[in-house]
Amino acid sequence: MAGKIQKQGVMAKLATLRGFAQRFAFASLFVLAFVLMMLGKAENMVVERARGAISDLAAPILDAVSRPVATVTDLITQTTEMMNLRDENARLREENTRLRAWHGVATHLAAENEALRNLLNYMPPAKGGFISARIVGDGGGPFVRSALISSGARDGISKGLGVINEDGLVGRVTDVGQRSARLLLLTDFNSRIPVMIESSRDRAILQGNNSSQPQLTLLPANARPKVGERVVTSGHGGLLPAGLPVGIIATARDGQVRVQPFVNWDKLEYVRIVDFGPIPAPEASAADAPVILPLPERPALRRAPVNEDPPDEDEDGVPPAAEAIPPTPLGSGQ
Amino acid sequence: MKSGGLWQRLDRFGRNLVPFAITLLLVVLGAVRLPVAGYATVVPLFALCAVFFWAVYRPQLLPAWLVFIIGLVQDALSGTPLGLSAIMLLIVYGMVASQRRFFMNKPFTLIWAGFTLIALIAIVVSWLLASITVAHIIRPGPAMFQLLLTLALYPAITAMLAGAQRLLPQQA
């Protein structure tokens, strides 16, 4: 009898001990999660490795799942495009006329630039390359603006590189795994991009705020930003080349300057990672290695400001080709 | 006889992995890119629904350390600070574990109401933590919209998980 009671007592003690251990384990996991957050904030190597390893594992799955989704979207887009073919054709023809005129100006200016650079013994910045990649995941949630791509360190991507698409600057690479990498979009709270206002050359930092319109900060006190002015990268910090189109100033009130990026975030599918370091030798003989394309000479051509007044230097002998483009009539269509 | 025992054990092991595997799959699905305007910022928290469900009905099959791992995977895939979702999911798990008797044999609407409260607390805490990590107050609008979407999808996800639960061995 006494033995049985004793046994029960031991069992009860064991049960409380087990409950205590469980609670302790739960609390430890909580603390561990907090510690991880702090370490991640301090850009700890182990945390970054872990992040890369997990996204490496998931990237092929996400890639596979996102392909049918992309196919369906493409089908819908193609159908709508078919219905708008006539309008689109007219619009393109008009744009083509305008661009051809600008092409003349650009060729001329490029030649002139070359000649002037030769006069000055100017050293041009090193030319880099593009690594093209596909966005496979972007379910960032309400707190971050980021995306996952299915190329990584083995494709020549490294931390800090700039990311663009055909519209303009997208953001930067923040985490790199072997076959996946994370992009921090320029709208994220943690994004800071050195930029300048194209016409006034005023430098500033483009700071993300999780909304669709990031803010210009650290503008010089005498700067007078105007709505509609283009914002481009300034090239400071060395990671991004100067002159990549970023966006246009959307509002400028009470010292708050907001920029509307050129990139359409909802339709972002393919991006190019701009690599300005020494391009790795094409040792990766794998068939799925990404294509590295040479940088075009004048990337910002297609968004050349049409309605801008000709600059003052015209009188100092800008040759006739530049003046042969009357800005307003072309801009207004006919 | 011996091999039959082994097979049985393997079978049970595989079935016991079902809650973890499904929850992980939901995390991956949540990271898939949909070409819907603004979807990425309000993507529903599928994993939160799943963790809640398993914590109510089969907590033995989804111990806290697996919840922690699921949270880390979600953080790595969505780009949030590593540990943020882990904390959020552990909060859900812990609150259900402490109130488990309340959820036993209750009608679905009551469980849904309980889920609403717990999800609200979890999202508010993660909003606060995310704001602290960027040293700014993040606009709470998208997070609240995400909560509403998650609540709206909860019945559908529950129906799916209840179907999966039938695959599992009966509770001991």
Q: Please, could you describe this protein's structure?
A:
The complex is a heterodimer of chains A (334) and B (172). Chain A is of the alpha+beta class. Chain A contains five helices and 13 strands. In chain A, β4 and β5 (181-185) form a beta hairpin. The relative contact order of chain A is 0.12. The model of chain A is unreliable at 278-291 and 293-334 (pLDDT under 50). Chain B is mostly helical and 172 residues long. Chain B is globular and about 60 Å long. At the A-B interface, α1, α2, β1 and β2 of A face α2, α3, α5, α6 and α8 of B.
Quaternary structure classification: heterodimer
Taking the alpha carbons of the first and last residues of chain A, their distance comes to: 107 Å
Structural class, judged by helices and strands of chain A?
alpha+beta
Helix share of residues of chain B?
over 70%
Structural class of chain B: mainly alpha
How big a fraction of the residues of chain A is strand?
15-25%
- The shape of chain B, in one word, is globular
The whole-number mean of residue pLDDT values of chain A reads 79
Q: Report the major sheet of chain A.
A: 6 strands, antiparallel, barrel
Global geometry of chain A: elongated
CA-based gyration radius of chain B: 17 Å
Number of strands of chain A: 13
Please work out how many helical segments of chain B DSSP would assign.
9
Strand content of chain B: under 5%
Q: How far do the termini of chain B sit from each other?
A: 23 Å
Helix content of chain A: 25-40%
Unreliable stretches of chain A: 278-291, 293-334
Name the helix and strand elements of chain B from N-terminus to C-terminus, one letter apiece.
HHHHHHHHH
Question: What is the spatial order of strands in the main beta sheet of chain A?
Answer: 1-2-5-4-3-12
Summarize this structure briefly.
The complex is a heterodimer of chains A (334) and B (172). Chain A is of the alpha+beta class and 334 residues long. Helix content of chain A is 37%, strand content 21%.
